[in-house]
Amino acid sequence: MCEACATPPPTPTLTRAQLLRLLGVGVGAAVLPALPGGAAQAATTHGTGRGPVLVENVRGYTLTRKGRLREFSSILISANGKVAGLDAHAGRGVRRVNGRGRVLLPGMHDAHGHLWSYGALASELDLSGTRTLAEAQQALAAYAAANPDLTWVTGRGWNQVIWGLGRFPTAADLDVVVSDRPVWLTRVDGHAGVANSVALALAGVTRDTPDPAGGQIIRDADGNPTGTLVDNAMGLVSSKLPAPTIEDVRQRALIAQQKLNAVGITSVSDAGTDAAGYLVLRELAQAGTLTMRVNAFLTWDAFSEVGADVRTDSFAADMLRVRTVKLYVDGALGSRGAALLQPYSDDPANTGLLRIEPEELDRRVLAILRQGYQAAVHAIGDRGNRLVLDAYDKAFRKVGDRGLRHRIEHAQVVALDDIRRFKKLDLIASMQPVHATDDMNMAEDRVGPERIKGAYAWRKLLDQGTVIASGSDFPVSSALPFEGMHAAVTRTDREGRPAGGWYSEEAMTPVEALRSFTLDAAYAAHQERVIGSLEPGKWADFVLTDLDPFCLPANRAMWQTGILRTWVGGRQVGEYGDL
């Protein structure tokens, strides 16, 4: 329980029917069983089931409570799935597991990801690897042909910058491939989408459709919609998509956790859980089916409807936490929706978009604090970040911060004068190191040589004592935590570009990078007492890897680290290669 709380938070009590009615999720043939009340323990999720276990003959690393690196050669796990000791004596009745000299690290905590879209992508068109519009069109044609029964063709991952297109894609670009049913494809950052003509017609988007507040309909010289919609305008089309069934939601969670376990992620902060998602996570946690801890950020709608009833710091042996609310203030840099204090350097008539007015942002932040929730607000541009800093400052003056470690998600481009305010307000900077290397192909074009000094500014934040919780923003960027660590330490992409690193003065050390993906990510989730490091009394969540991030061979890079085993709560949940 959070120390700031005078009384324990209530146990989730809402029924399945109530939650589904709140969200309006369609119920397919396969539905959830009724969920009993109470925080039942998930006995099958934790513990070995066979008594204590000693994992020995490893090169182990963990952080101590003070953030220092400790090495060890064995870890003793108690029957309840918690760490009993490092380099501890193993008595009689202890099952031994030989780590064969492999590296053992605390399980990675992705501090900002999107479970539901990540799981959905397994069955949608994935355009993230396409290098040109033509490649994307070929992929669309193949996917549509392979899925003739889909009423809508959906996907994500396009990036007009990588395509070298010099413009956003259009409905005409899609129509030449699929014209018999609606197509909706989301940009890689999730802040823009392109529809074909059928989808635009179904959504009623015409030249007479006004831009919604916080959104933009991209238009041609005659004022006609081209097919691309940015930020809040995306809802004009996305609201017409078929509603997922509850079984769809469940399968997305199961697929996502399987993929994330395989890259070494044992816990995640999900940046947008609605009521149906909460219901599914609660069911899976209670049944012992979750193999990954989830710190769920409620959407504003879910918080408004059910927040008072579902708040909990720990459900099912720390498998689920619901104590954070996600808000958005602006869009993304790649689609020029990030809100800037001055116009874009490569688009002088544009200062980006506010997805919510400042007064409404202030109101929502204050409401979140008054309900005893942690706020996590998406802010990319320097204006967006300033507005969020202002909102926290105003709210703290009214109710205090209550020790809830409020967060700014991304904190991507920050005015230099505002960086110190993160420390003054004691905020968490929830950042994604791989965004720097993903965005370096356009970031300075967008903001110019002066504003870039406050962008992806990890070193400036760390040096002033601000906690950075690292994540990936999957599926926006690669979910591989070691790719994020590689970016954090080298400021280069997978190919080592640019030589010497992009603004390398902002790089982290290897220990800082590991800490940002483990102990500090857990701290940002109020879970540092139970996960984040391998100390006695904490859950035995760890991975075995084929590379040592602190002693890499000359011909290998950190992003190439492979996961061999994943353990959660003292139980192996994934095996991916020979030890």
UniProtKB/TrEMBL annotation:
Q: Which InterPro entries match?
A: Amidohydro_3, Metal-dep_hydrolase_composite, Metal_Hydrolase, TAT_signal, YtcJ-like
UniProt cross-references to Pfam families, sorted A to Z: Amidohydro_3 (PF07969)
Cited CDD domains: YtcJ_like
Keyword list, A-Z: Hydrolase
Tagged with keyword Hydrolase: yes
The Amidohydrolase domain covers 99-573
Q: Extract the signal peptide range.
A: none
MF annotations from Gene Ontology: hydrolase activity, acting on carbon-nitrogen (but not peptide) bonds
Name of protein = Amidohydrolase
Q: Which organism is it from?
A: Micromonospora musae
